[in-house]
Amino acid sequence: MKYFRILVFIVLIFAQCKVQSQDEPVKIIVLYDNYQFSDSTIADWGYSCLVIRENDTILFDTGARKDIMFHNLQALNIDVSTIQTMVISHHHGDHVGNIFPIIEKNPDIQVFLPSTLGGNFREMVENYNVRATVNRDYRQVAHNIFITAEMGFQIPEQALVIKTDKGLVLISACSHPGIDRMVRKVGKKFEEKVYMVMGGFHLEEYSDEEIDEIIETFHESGVEKMAPGHCTGQKAMDKFRQAWHHNFIRSGTGKVIEL
What span, in angstroms and rounded, lies between the C-alpha atoms of 196 and 198? Predict the structure, then answer.
């Protein structure tokens, strides 16, 4: 009986450790994109998505037009006041267009800006009595959800990284630094493979050969799933679809990805 109790105790401890090691599920909702997924939403040039994990809700970029952004939020039954954190990737208008309308609806939100939006822009945000932080390095903003440091030189840009049991999920809004370089840098920084890449890849003007090289880099980096959108370009989208087959995820406004 004594040994039986010890065995049961060990089994319970092991089970508890296993449960604790399993990460909370993640839901990613595409709010603003060039492509439409749900008929109730409107597509437009720009990008925004919502990341939800347990009690954390993070808005990544804000799209361009207020009427479209708030139409999509309403269509997807998302209450802006429940969003805790806003992360901005870079300074272009199709990504920052709704910063202030969102803040007006949710004055308790915390805002993380790239350094290219520091200075006067940060003061404009703080005039709403909102907590604004200019990010310059990798930073954890929620449980196993990180902002990268700004990457690239001509148009510096930061991305979101989510740690999951399957590997890293990299969400890039526009990929001005080069999506292949971003995948390599993030994988090296976290010493984990990038399991899924999604967002805008900025490949519209790339040649077939250049896109094929990026696909090869993704395969070498262990990327298993792909959900491109926004500025990726149709030629690149078609090539990614052919390369990933059933692991290619058709994205667009209203798309919900659960991990």
Answer: 7
Beta pairing, strands 56-60 & 48-53: antiparallel
Tokens of 146: 């990180």
> Would you kindly state where each structural domain of the chain is located, as residue ranges?
24-258
CB environment 117-139: b (16+ within 10 A), e (fewer) = beeebbeebeeeebebbebeeee
User: What's the burial of 153, exposed, middle or buried (CB within 10 Å: 0-12/13-18/19+)?
Assistant: exposed
Rg of the chain in Å (alpha carbons): 20
What is the CATH number assigned to the segment(s) 24-258?
3.60.15.10
Q: E strand or H helix at 210, and its extent? A: helix 208-221
Q: Are 200 and 173 in contact, with CB atoms under 8 Å apart?
A: yes
Quote the CA–CA distance of 241 and 64 in Å, as a whole number: 27
For 9-66, how does the pLDDT look when each residue is reduced to its tens digit (9 = 90+)?
Answer: 444 444 444 344 447 899 999 999 999 999 999 999 999 999 999 999 999 999 999 9
pLDDT digits (tens, 9 = 90+) for 186-221: 999 999 999 999 999 999 999 999 999 999 999 999
